[in-house]
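Milestone M4 deliverable, item 7.
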Amino acid sequence: MLKRVRWLLFLGLALGPSAYGPADAQTLDTIRQSKIIRLGYIADEKPFSFKKADGSPAGYAIDLCRRIADEIGLNVSGLKKNYIETTLSDGFGAVKDGKIDLLCGATTINLARRENVDFSQPIFLTGASALLRKDSPDYLQILFLDKRPVSAVDLKSPAQSSIGVRAGTTTGATLRDAIGPDVPQTRIVDFPTHEDGLKALEEHKIDAYFADRSLLIGLADRAGNPSKLELGSRLFTHEPYGIAMRRDDSDFRLFVDRTLTGLYTSNDFPKLLKTYFGAEAPALRSEIMMQSIPE
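Output delivered:
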């Protein structure tokens, strides 16, 4: 059944843009004609998207996008994958403007973003938390690690307390809500990359770094001295990640979702998860499968 649907889809493409009427050429049309698929990625979102030592892109989301490209390549001979490094904020604009076909990274699906781009079905589920030093203020450890306060003094925010977030993400507003009445005493600092935030945390320029927990795991592993850091146990959001693509292109979105469902139900998927997430792979697969679209 899957092969028949795929054949019918590309039969429509073989008829050319006229098969779609006067509207602009759709994404699969453009890919077929150019024999190029443009994969956008964000380089500082390990293990979802990052650069290897040789400068080539890698990561869980990158591998999913490659899988989609390979499926298209079964019907488009000589298909070339063009990798375009971008930032989170610029990436959505590039998708909207038709400069990127798939944006591959740790990209949260939300309604505000769907005003400009569309998304695949979820590729991962996580939530926002914090990475702290073991000498970070007690009130932050109570907030993020669920530690019980020793005294009422521990609940107070130091005047110079600072928490970092990456600029342009959805986590800044979430962080303000999490802190609540302590906001006046807590400074929120924006950083252009997660690596910059980690550096500031290790250099005692901030007291915690707030981001999606799955990204914080990778940051902690890359720290100069991981033993001095603690990963938050509390999740403050529900963050489904998806692959961003152009809006108003239901054929392309269906193709992407069908490819992902095929991968999720295959024997390749547990191996892929284990490559990037190790022992957490079985639990992660169960969570993703619960949110996936069935065939």
